[in-house]
Amino acid sequence: MCRITTKEYCDFVHGYFHEEASLCSQVECLHDVCGMIPFLHPEWPDQFYRLFTTIFLHAGIIHLVITLLIQYFLMRDLEKLTGSLRIALIYFTGALAGNLASAIFVPYRAEVGPAGAHFALLATLVVEVLHCWPMLKHPRRALSKLILILVGLLALGILPWVDNYAHLFGFIFGFLAAYALMPFISFGHYDRRRKILLIWVCLILIVGLFALLLALFYNVPVYECEVCKLFNCVPFTRDFCASQNINFKREEQV
């Protein structure tokens, strides 16, 4: 229960005072809603581990079945090709980056599932085509098919409750991680040196881009960005995207 009162009265009844609304509550609302591990600093709610735990949560049976099908029919073959450790690193790199980007650009939406990881697997297929380009009979056709799949899935991302930011950044980080970690075949000394150089470039980009996302998340959060919302859901009708609860306004403390 919350009531409008003064801070002195709230302290007297051992309640939790919310300065932004002059409310006194019986419980520390944000702490109780978030749950799991308590905040290290209550005035600075930080549960960074949620970027990882949300990978294993799903929005229902259908969502879970889609994940299992992707892992069984796609990830299983990639694991045989690259090894368990490599594919795990690619998978979780895409998932963490996708979740972090989603938290930055659409902060008022609850997100679950390994969407970023799935697009990291798609990026791994693209990297495999690039690595085997001279050995494929129709490499351009294979690459075009993957690009069409990517564009089609991103187009579906403008529908409600589909996280395009997790998809896009999962693909970007998955591509970089796959290029850096996947085994490759070199065609001559120059080609080997070029690929090793690109591996280091990809690793540096992963670290740099992830640090940039962290800086945005903690220092320059995107609370109000109309263009950002359009990339995640295009309002074809007035209430098309309303159910996503992305229209909250951030109240600045006076």
Automatic annotation (TrEMBL):
An example of a Pfam family matching this protein is Rhomboid
Q: What is its main location?
A: endoplasmic reticulum
- For this entry, the protein name equals Rhomboid family member 1
| Membrane topology designation | Multi-pass membrane protein
GO cellular component terms attached to this protein's record: endoplasmic reticulum membrane
| UniProt family annotation | Belongs to the peptidase S54 family.
Identify the residues that the record assigns to the Peptidase S54 rhomboid domain, covering every copy. Answer: 46-182
- Which N-terminal residues, if any, form the signal peptide? none
Q: Which GO BP terms apply?
A: regulation of epidermal growth factor receptor signaling pathway; regulation of protein secretion
Alphabetized UniProt keyword annotations: Endoplasmic reticulum, Membrane, Transmembrane, Transmembrane helix
Q: Where in the cell is it found?
A: Endoplasmic reticulum membrane
Species this chain originates from: Lasius niger
Q: Which PANTHER family match?
A: INACTIVE RHOMBOID PROTEIN, INACTIVE RHOMBOID PROTEIN 1
Entry GO MF terms: serine-type endopeptidase activity
What Gene3D superfamilies would the database entry show? Rhomboid-like (1.20.1540.10)
Which residue ranges run through the membrane?
Answer: 48-75, 87-106, 112-130, 142-162, 168-185, 197-218
* Superkingdom: Eukaryota
